[in-house]
Each structure stands twice: as C-alpha cells, then as structure tokens.
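Form 7-S
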Amino acid sequence: MASYLYRLGKAAFRGRKFVLALWLAVLFMAGVGAAALSGPTSNTFSIPGTEAQRALDLLKTKMPEASADGATARVVFQAPHGHKLTKEPVEKVVGELRELAHVASVADPFKAELVSPDGSIAFAQVTYKVQGVELEHADRDALVGATKVAKDAGLTVEVGGDAMQEPAGVSATEAIGVGVAALVLVMTFGSLVAAGLPLLNALIGVGIALAAIMAASGFTKIGSSTPILALMLGLAVSIDYALFIVSRYRKELLDGREPEEAAGRALGTAGSAVVFAGFTVIIALAGLSVAGIPTLTEMGLAASFAVTVAVLVALTLGPALLGFAGRRVLGKSTEETANPNPLSRRWAAAITRRPLAALLAATALLGVVALPALDLRLGISGDEALSTHRTERRAYDLLEQGFGPGFNGPLLLVIDDPDAAATADGFAKKVSSFDGVAAVTSPTPNKSGDTAVFTVVPKSGPSEQATTDLVERLRDTAPNGTMVTGSTAVGIDVSAKLGSALAPYLTLIVGLALVLLVLVFRSIVVPLKAALGFLLTMAATFGAVVAVFQWGWLSDLFGVPVAGPIQSLTPIFLVGVVFGLAMDYQVFLVTPMREEYVNGASPKRAVEAGFQHGARVVTAAAVIMIAVFAGFLFSHDPMIKLMGFAMAAGVFFDAFVVRMTIVPAVLALLGRRAWSLPPWLDRILPDMDVEGAKLDADLDERKPAHV
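Output:
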C-alpha cells in the first residue's frame, strides 16, 4: 500500500492543476445538485416492527381522519394571576386556528373539557393533515400569529408540539470550532500556508459531502440532524487527515527531500495511516445499520460518506495542494531543533520510567469519571429539553402546572377488533382504575367499527420510569388486538430496540476493527489493548454525559436548559463515532512507535521516540476535534448539543488519557511482547507496510551510487 500511495502522491503533486480543477468541478456539480434536487429535512422518527409503529400504521389505514402521524400543536392559555379564563378570546383563537392551512381539526378547550381544575389554564389541541416536515416557516408563524387576539386580551399564550419544530441547522456560533482549529494549526506549524492547507481540504471535502447529502434529500427523507452530524464528523476528520499528511511532508522536506519526493513519501507513510484510520471510522459508522433503525442507518451512512470523501480528498487533493505550496509550508524556519518537542519527550520518559503507576493512575481517573454512568437513563426528550426562552418549553411547563406532568405525554391506545367499540369501552374502564393513571378519555370508533382509540393520561411525566412501567402494564393486561402508541410509547420502544442492538453492533465493529489493527501493527496485543482502552473511554464519556445532561452538573456552563434522560440514540451512535476516532488516534500515535521498533530501536526507545514524533500532531488533531465538536454546544437542537458535548468529551478522554498515557504505559510494560505475532499468523497475513519501511528500503536501493 505504501508504494502505491507513494506513486499517487507524486502523480497528484505533478498534476496539481488537474487534480484541483477536478475537485472544484465535483464541488460545483454537487452544489448544483443540492440546489436543484434537495427536499425538506424531517423531524419524524419511526422504528418498523415495534408495537407503537404498527399502531400508527394501522391508524393511517383505518382511521385516516385521526391524522395519527400528522403534526400536532398545543396552544396553551393562562389567565392573569388570580383570574379565570373567559371563553371569548379563547374561542376567537380557536376560530382562527381552524382557518390555517393544513389544519385537520382544533379541539375547543371549553367543549373538550381541556381546562384546568382551577379554570386558569386551558389548551387547544391542533391537529394537522400533514407531518411536521411538510410545514414551512410561514405555517409556524401563522400558528403563533393566530394567538394575537388572546394576547391582546391580557392572556398568556404559549405554543408547543412537534408542529413548532424547526429543522436543525448550522448556526454562526458553530464556526467557533473552525476558528480554534485555524489557531491550533498556525501554532502547530508556525506557517500560515501550512495551516491553511488542512482547512482548504476540509472546506472542499465537507462542501461536497453536505451538498451530496442535501441532493439525496430530494429522493429520500433525510432527518434534520443528519446533515449536521455529517458536517460535525466530516469537518473534524478532514482537518485531522490533512494535518497528518502536511506534518509528514514538512518532516521529509527538513530531512533534505525535494518537494515532489517529500509529497510521495508523506503519502506513502502518513497516507497509509489515513487510509486505515478512515476505513475504521467508516466501518464503525456504516455498521450502525445493523440496528435496523432507519434513522440511525441514515445518520451512519451519511456520516460515513462524509468520512469517505475526507479520505479521498486528503489522498489526492492533499498532495496537489502541497505542490502549489512547495517549501512555503516551512514558513520562515528551515530547520528543526534537535529536540523539537521537549514536553512530549519528558512525558514519554516519565511514563516509561514508571509505567505501572501511570497505568493505574489513568485507569483510576477514568473509573471515577465513569461512576455516574451507572445511573444512565434513556428516553426521547421533547419540548422539556428546550430553553425556557422558547415558547415550546413554556407551553410544556404551563401544561404541567395546570394538568399534571402526564398531559405532556399521553398514551394512545388503539384497538383492532371486529367489535372494537365494546372492547375499547371495557378496557378503558379497567385502565381508569390503574395506579398511575390520571385520566382516560371515552373511546372513539371508526366508521366501520373495527378500530377504536382512546387516550390514557399518566400521572407521571413522559421521561419518568413510572410512565414506562405503566406502558408495560397496559401491554401486559390489554386484550388481543390492542396496541399502545403515542410519542411516549414510541420513545420507550426506541430505547428498548436500541438497547438490544448495542451488543451485536459492538461485536461487529470491534471484530472488524481488530482485524484491521492486526494487519496494521502485526501484533495481537496492540489491537486488544486498543479495544480495552476504548471501553474505558466510553465508560468515562457516558459518565460525563450523565453528570451534565441527566444530573445537571455544570449545566449552566454547557448551556443545558434542563436535566433529564439521555436521548436514546446517543449510546449506539456515540459508540460508533468514538470507536472510529479512537482507532484513528491509535493508528496515528502507535504507527511511529512501530516504525521506530521496525527500524531497530529497543522497545522502550521505540515508545519514547515514536511518542515524541506523533504526540504533537495527535495533540493538535485532538484539540481541533474537541473544538469542532464543542462548537455544536451552541446549537438549539438538544440532540446536536448532546452529541457535540459527548464527542468532545470522548475525544478528550481517549486522546489524552487512553492513547497518550495508558497506551505508552502498556507498551513499556510489555516490551517486545507487544510487537510479537505468532509465526503461523505472521506467514498468512499480508504485510501492509503502513510504516513505510519497505518503501524506504526500496527507494534507497534505487538511489544512484555516488562516484
């Protein structure tokens, strides 16, 4: 592989104008495709095969008038303190709501008994004929605008529900991560030219990936969070992969190589590591499809596509841009000092001097941080996770104040039975006596009488364990043909299916990644150590996520509006992303150590020298990734905010604690055993020459003899 990439690097360097023009043409065509073909993104979430989804599908067929999968909004009214609501302003609002586009029905609070016991709070339930993805910004403005008459009458009016959800988008504050990345690159290289190359790689690669994803949204539904997650990952890995290649190119120049030769050798060595690191990330992300959840599959495939583009851009456009930059990547300095990175040398020496103490201390630290993960609770949060500055959150709080927490997460029971009305009446009466039930509505049958629905309002909130227990009891005691659905039940089913999918997913990605790492390092111990280190990383990451987002620690610092359960998608998606990135750092940090060992250094010296070569670049890459991910903490979307924090924390723990402390400590403890491979396995495995040892030997043989 190293020899092939060496030739590719030199060819791209020579044909730099053609390569740059080709990628710019691809970017232009992708942009045109996005402009012409892109469709709206979706906030809907479905899991085929679950009871909640089967019930929704049944209602769509047998009771389309119920608009079970249509968008909903709750317009909540509150009278001034010490007063009760009057009908006139509320009914005027209801009348205006019924005239809005796409509205199927509006429940009048006074006729539908949707008024709080003290008469101070009421809400009108608005049901749309279409899903939230089909509503435009103008529809949401019209919904809020219809409440003006009640506000003018002195009432407090707030609007919540999924009809108010705006598609997730990139805000200007997320560019902070790119700014930090630029600063880190300048500090790392000391050259504006060298710092600009990774950023240019990233802008072109991410632009192509995002444009292609948006073009695909014209043919299939794309979740509103999907492009943002693809941007988050694509931007981070694009900068990192280009960073490693540029860093190696500078080293080759400082060793006296001509620019074209330096580009070839840089791609043959650092490029090989980029290929394996990128392939590991792609496997981890694409493997999310094993969960059988369309939304998760879509996120994983989109993000893996962005990483694929990042790898291709780094391997072709990267050396082409080096051709334009030439020796200017070195800046004003043309030589390195004898000790270019004294801090990393001292750190590596300290670890190899007392490897057991370093290993125990780092493991204990991660163990303490991981303790909150024992209390991990999963769910799908809604308006309660938003800031109190948002009308959706204030509507949620008013409903809880007036009617109890269960009104924000009612359960819909669907009866599919030839005598659905009678069956529904009997079960509704039984359910009304259950502990934890606040209210039960009268069943409503369809015209043919073979389907009926009624609503059960829990006493507990949507994300509380008591509500989950109630759903389980309803399903256990329900007559045949009865299904429980609604947003709360969907969330419970999502959590259950994701939990069952996590084990096979971990088995798949860890197994494939171990095979790749055995090929890269020709060792059994190094891949196993990498996988065990990843488990420590994940435990600490989940501990930090629970502490901040579930327990509320430092929530103000990180902009978390309310503590609550962790989004159900987080564990499996986070495992895939962080595993891929962890293997990135494993490859980039340990490859120089193996290179030193293959070239004759003692095990201890190989660890110290390899660490010194790789630590500075890996540190810069980790800081850049953390900055890019942390930039998404400013997103208004709770899912994006959570994922930004979780991935930033995961990279921090993995890069600085696991890879830079535990890894060199273990390698120092094991000595030569760390790099050994059983003879029979050594014979059958292909030698991928990631460190470029064979490439160097082959090139040295071709050198003309000095006369």
